[in-house]
Design brief:
The complex is a heterodimer of chains A (313) and B (218). Chain A is α+β, with helices and mostly antiparallel strands. Helix content of chain A is 31%, strand content 27%. Chain A has two domains: 3-85; 87-306, no CATH class. Chain A is built from eight helices and nine strands. In chain A, strands 4-3-2-1-9-8-7-6-5 form a nine-stranded antiparallel beta sheet. In chain A, helix 4 (87-100) runs antiparallel to helix 8 (222-231) and helix 7 (201-213) runs antiparallel to helix 8. Chain A is globular. Chain B is mostly helical and 218 residues long. In chain B, helix 4 (86-98) packs across helix 8. The chains are: A alpha+beta (313), B mainly alpha (218). Chains A and B meet through helix 1, helix 2, helix 4 and strand 5 of A and helix 2, helix 3, helix 6, helix 7 and helix 9 of B. Chain A: The chain crosses the membrane at residues 49-70. Chain A: Keywords: Membrane, Transmembrane, Transmembrane helix. Chain A: This is Tat pathway signal protein.
């Protein structure tokens, strides 16, 4: 055996590229692609969307399904052709799978709570150690009672919704049943939301994802319509080979210029978690300034309907 | 309805059964950036493995990702006459490894030292060892010698040697990836191999494969 052959065959330790590392690298490439798209087309995501996303994501990342703690192999060999499908085709598959899936949480009463447990990892982009948390929250279904959330290790008591406050997208099942299950009509509803003027495509994208993120129990056909509505939004991007922070293979849905990627299970299309780029804000001379940018990933571990704060499934 | 393209989508009038060349993927990505992910899907594993062998798996996770981000950002400078993007990607990865020369040297020296310790431990027992254990120790010692030899190579020689050995590039591809003449590749490889043989030979350590061969032939 010559020296070159010996060198070729020499393996030093475990050199495995894990599915998580692969997905993280792929996501990094897509962030670079997004960044370029943003440079060419538009400025940053509006502050309203950032704040709303950060709040909703941090407070109660949750799913419209039931089995989010399931972990499967990362092998995509069983469905190789999906990688060559367009975003619209993948989203249509998601809609079809959602229509066929009848395993939902029981319909919650308005006086109950959505319980969620979420794993969070945050890495500062300017250096520093990665921090992790496992947050829990109890969210009043109709908002008539106080809610409790453990956010980044801190406890927050949220008062009931005020007399003129509403939640959008709604969490009360009766209100969700009133949303259209026709994708065109749903998209129209999402575009208007609570606004007097129609939202941009990115706003509609964001609300469609928030609708599926939950926590809420979706009436039959609503999640499917939401996926189909997403397919009708120009430039929505779908990454078939994503993996969430807990190692679950998923489909990443994102929109150029928005620093959020929503992840859905590759088979059931239940919400799994999200990735986002954010930053902490500081009040400087009376103005809020962005400081300390970070990259954050969240994985929904558990969702349930419970009778009270502190109760767990 | 306008939608972003699916990954792996092809453009133009190519035969649908024929995968797009790397060069055409790069060209398509000029207008449709998402298409660049096709190169990631094709070569992420190769690049990761190459960097992991040089710097370890943790650094490889980061540098492999960085390689594709840099490649994407520099894709308009890609020479479209080069059908294969592997040499280009290996070149970027090798440049990134170059920023971690000290880490690489430390890693190689540590591997060399660790094996030396294991080898000295082996001889102290004085008991005849099981064949399997002997083989493992020999293999480890051989690895240690190789690591030590690589650590002693000048960086530019090591780059050429490892692009050929671990990147599986030929001389022309190595020259392309490093942006040097092919004659330089030949001479650096020649010197690197000569030094490697000299160092390994001086240690007088049979390789694990050689031991196995001897064993097989009784």
């Amino acid at each position: 055996m010559d020296d070159l052959t010996e060198l070729r065959e020499w393996e030093a330790g475990n050199l495995q590229l894990t599915p998580q590392a692969r997905a993280a690298a792929r996501a990094r490439l897509f962030r670079a692609i997004d960044h370029e798209a943003r440079q060419g087309t538009r400025g940053r995501l509006s502050r309203r969307l950032v704040l709303r996303g950060a709040f909703v994501g941090a407070a109660t990342a949750a799913a419209a399904g039931i089995a989010v703690a399931v972990t499967r192999d990362g092998d995509s060999a069983s469905t190789p052709n999906l990688t060559t499908l367009s975003a619209a085709q993948i989203l249509q598959k998601a809609a079809d799978a959602s229509r066929a899936d009848h395993s939902r949480l029981p319909i919650p009463r308005d006086d109950q709570y959505f319980y969620t447990k979420t794993y969070i990892e945050r890495t500062p982009l300017k250096g520093g150690r990665t921090r992790t948390w496992t947050d829990e929250s109890w969210m009043s279904v109709d908002g008539s009672k106080p809610s409790l959330r453990h956010e980044y290790g801190k406890v927050h008591h949220d008062p009931p919704l005020g007399k003129h406050e509403v939640r959008w997208p709604p969490t009360v099942y009766a209100k969700l049943k009133k949303l259209p299950t026709d994708p065109d009509e749903l998209l129209e509803t999402l575009r208007h939301g609570q606004q007097s003027t129609p939202q941009t495509d990115q706003g509609a994208f964001f609300d469609a994802c928030l609708l599926m993120q939950g926590p809420r129990v979706m009436p039959p056909g609503l999640q499917a319509a939401a996926f189909e509505a997403l397919a009708d939004i120009p430039r929505v991007r779908v990454d078939r080979d994503d993996v969430d922070i807990l190692g679950r293979p998923g489909v990443g849905v994102s929109y150029p210029g928005i620093d959020f990627t929503f992840l859905f299970d590759r088979d059931t299309y239940v919400y799994l978690g999200m990735r986002l780029k954010g930053c902490t804000t500081k009040l400087v001379n009376g103005q809020w300034r962005d400081t300390n940018p970070y990259f954050e990933t969240k994985g929904l571990q558990q969702i349930a309907v419970v009778d009270g704060i502190g109760r767990r499934p | 309805m306008t939608l972003s393209p699916g990954i792996g989508v092809r453009h133009g009038t190519r035969d649908d059964n024929e995968p797009a060349s790397d060069a055409s993927v790069v060209k398509d990505s000029w207008e449709t950036p998402d298409v660049f992910a096709v190169l990631f899907d094709r070569y992420a594993g190769d690049i990761h493995r190459y960097v992991a062998r040089r710097l370890g798996v943790d650094a490889a996770d980061d540098l492999m990702a960085e390689t594709f981000v840099i490649a994407f950002q520099q894709r308009r400078r890609y020479d479209l006459s080069q059908a294969q993007a592997r040499p280009w990607l290996y070149g970027i990865a090798t440049n990134l490894v170059g920023r971690h020369r000290r880490a690489e040297a430390r890693r190689l020296r540590a591997m060399s030292r660790a094996v030396s310790l294991a080898s000295s431990g082996e001889s102290e027992g004085g008991e005849p060892m099981e064949d399997r254990v002997a083989e493992r120790v020999s293999a480890e010692r051989s690895s240690g010698v190789l690591a030590g030899a690589l650590a002693k190579l000048p960086a530019r020689h090591r780059d050429v040697l490892l692009l050929v050995a671990w990147g599986d590039l030929d001389y022309a591809e190595t020259a392309e990836s490093l942006g040097i003449p092919i004659g330089t590749v030949r001479s650096r490889l020649h010197r690197a191999r000569a030094q490697l043989r000299k160092t390994v030979g001086a240690q007088d350590v049979p390789s694990a494969a050689a031991l196995q061969k001897e064993h097989d032939h009784g």
